[in-house]
Amino acid sequence: MVQQTVNKMRMNARLIFSALFMVIATLSFAQSTTVKGVVTDKQGEPLIGVNVVEKGTTNGNITDLDGNFTLTVEKGRTLVFSYVGFISQEVKVTGNSMNITLLDDAQSLEEVVVVGYGTVKRKDFTGSLTSVDTKILLETNNNNAAAAMQGQIAGVDIQRSNNKPGAGINIMIRGQNNISAMKGGDELTNMNDINQPLYVVDGMFVDNINDIAPDDIERIDVLKDASSTAIYGSRGANGVVIVSTKRGTAERSHVEYNGSVSFGQATNLPDMMDGDQYVQYVYDRMKGQNWTNPDYEPDMEATLGANKYKNWQNRKYMDWADDVFRTAISTTHNVRIYGNGKGLNYTFGAGYTNENGTIENDNFTRYNFSTAVDKQINPYLKAGTNIYAAYSIKSNSGVEAFRQTFRLNPLTDKYDENGDLLLYPDKDAGSVATNPWCDIENQKTEIKNLHVFGNLYLEIKPVKWLKFTTTFTPDATFNREGEYRGLNTKSSGGNTEKTRAYYKTYNQVKYTWDNLLYAEQSFGDHNLNLTLGTSWYKYQYEFGGIRADGFTTDHYQWYNIGAANLNSGETSTSFTQEQLMSYLARLNYDFKGRYLLTFTGRYDGSSKLADGHRWAFFPSAAVGWRISDEAFLRNVEAISNLKLRVSYGVSGNDHSVSAYQSKQTISNSWYLFGDTGMQTAYLSSFENKNLSWEKTKEWNIGLDYAFFNGRINGTIDFYDRRTSDIIMARKMSMINGYDSLKDNVGKVLNRGLEISLNTINVQAGDFSWSTNINFTTNHNEILELSNGALRDEANGWFVGQPIGVVWTYDADGIWQEDEAAEAAKYNMAPGNYKIKDLDGDYAFTNADKVFKGSLFPKWTGGMTNTFRYKGIDLSVFLYTRQGQWSYAQAYRNFTMGDNIAFNCYDLNYWTPENPTGTWWRPGITKTTAEGDYVNYVETSFTKIGYINLGYTFPTKMIKKAGLSKLRVYASVQNPFVWTDYLGWDPETASENTYTQYAMTRSFVVGLNVTF
Predict the structure, then answer these.
(1) pTM to 2 decimals?
(2) Which residues constitute the domain of residue 32?
(3) pLDDT digits (tens, 9 = 90+) for 708-719
(4) DSSP run (H or E) holding 7
């Protein structure tokens, strides 16, 4: 009975607990919900394999190929989203759907970076390296990959050669090492050739990356210190820019399209004189020319001439800039296909760029084709190929068109009475001021360039820890340049005999063959990585050129040189060949991933140097300490990463010498034998049997840091680089028969600080704001000159001063009328600049010159701010160069120093009626010292590089259309510039006015689609 009662109670309890469980389960189910969503990166690209976990539980899932996830959780619970390389995010469940944007952890320790002949995790790298990924490159909407990096990387100084379509880019890493790359302290000349870094595209060495479409690039890694570049030996003496292009992966097959159209306008045009201002200037100039007669009144009709006087009276003014400049419409289209299957990964890309200038007939067109194929043949064998081809056509109007647009004054006419273009709109200016439209329509330059390069590689991996690769890399460039100057151009001046055509062609073929052995092994807490290899490089260059004069028709241009009546005698051909052989080794070691060591050595032999001095060994070493892994910091939550790096290395350089300059050379000449011209030969240079390598020794101390889970991160680097045995011209006594020879003389110092800072300022729900800042300062100084000299005034080189020092005169205002007697002692008058006479000899000589600055900036910086809200993104990029000087070519033409008929900048110039004017008096005799004082000018500037606004459509909205990404954007390029420079672009101020071109402000609209 008792047992029955107990059993009954147990049954009732079970029923009660079962009922309670059902109620609780029902309540729980009523509070649970199925959450669906998509996870993307900040560019709206779906992220595959993101971990989505209910916080504090094991309830979770991962995103699929389209970034989608589904998870059943209770409302009010928190989901944690985590993914390697991105900052984890926690979001509370409030509904049935959510779209999550994960932000990059810019200093992700597991990120793999590309270094010389291999890759390494960023956390294990001991050198100085900065990376730029495809997202940053594409945000600039720039068609040139090098230009897209401008202002983005600390320690890398990037300048445009000019603003014409298709113009090249000059890159200099950590200052200028070579003295002979300057011309008399005046302007940059050979900097682009001698100080150019090494460019490596998917393991292939190229001269530049102007032919690479930014859309083809996955990332760019820049190696800056001697330790990280040492594996490349002499080829990496000026730094290394490593470009990794986009490749297919095993994840998925897809198609990408990126296209845009832009509308460009000439911007930052100087304020030139209008008609009334120009007439006043002519009046004041005539008064200035007759300043000794204060009562002199010029006859303006006689001075201006009948036609210009008539235009003035009728106020018929011509705005040449408004007439010449146009809206330039440019387009770009890029398509890339990714695929995979059965161990084969591939990608094919094609691109088209058409960039028009703001002057008619200025155009650049480029076609890009690329393919990359990787095949895993078996577990031990892998093979692949990369092929890249770029075909470009660059066309330019006459070299005078831009300059003449600003030279012609507003009283001139474009057409004559018959409606034909006037070749000389202003007869008073003579033949130096021509109608820009004549050069636009009758002079043409066209450069066609085909660049094809690629590689074939075979990788053998017999065991897990050992790998051998052999790579053959051919590179061929075929270039043709044609130029024709027709009858109605400035150079021909309407004379048929002066019409001319040029035809130039060259082909350049290079080969590189690399054989590399990699070994990697771990022994407990010890990890070793060894690289051994050889590299053979051969280069050949052939050139041919011809010019002919006297064309009776403009029809043939350069296509029929034989149609010319005159042989100019300008024909030339040349051939150059050089080789480089190298043996290399690198050992990486780490203990517990905390203490890092890198040793590198390279043995280079160059055919360009003298026999017996061609080979040299260049070693380097680096250590790293991951301080944040130490016990005393490991549990400090605020510190995500802290790594100290110290490196030292020696690198060589033979770029300053051409293929045969160590040899004695022979040149051709002519002499008269009686009345007959005879060809002869003579020894034109002195042989240097001791010519050897330039050597650069560099210390680098760096700190990598990240705080608060990477929300604040960056790097700080301090370097000291000393280049010795610089190859330059050493002066010799003419008793030897030559006044100079190439020799190893001179020493240069570059010392600087580089700082990069990345911050996530706000991350609240769907809104984020991030900032990227970089800062660079470099001190350049000549330590030694040839023969122990302390100064070389002819070239503007001084021990203790920068290579590009500005050595010129200074002034203390303008002579006033009450100072006429004192001014006369210098053969000057009121209105002249009061040039400082430092030695008191009443003459202006080199003794009166002072050091005013440098052609290189004291510091450069860049800052990008990015704001995102759901699918909307806004980014603003700012770039600055401060403390730089230039020899302003435009000031020579447009600050009242030239022909009276030339137009000028609208200047506040001095006259007796305007004694507070800051510019010299028009018409007064100017001295050479004054010209130097005026033309050397500080050209610091700050530019807004771009402002971008984009919208990425939600994946669920576009998925039905078969799309995984759809982004539309609008951008404005170069919207603002702040500078005291009066010319067109402070960045290109030192360029000759022949090659000057206006800055372009562009308005861009574009589309990114992924299928």
Answers:
(1) 0.83
(2) 2-101
(3) 888 899 999 999
(4) helix 2-31
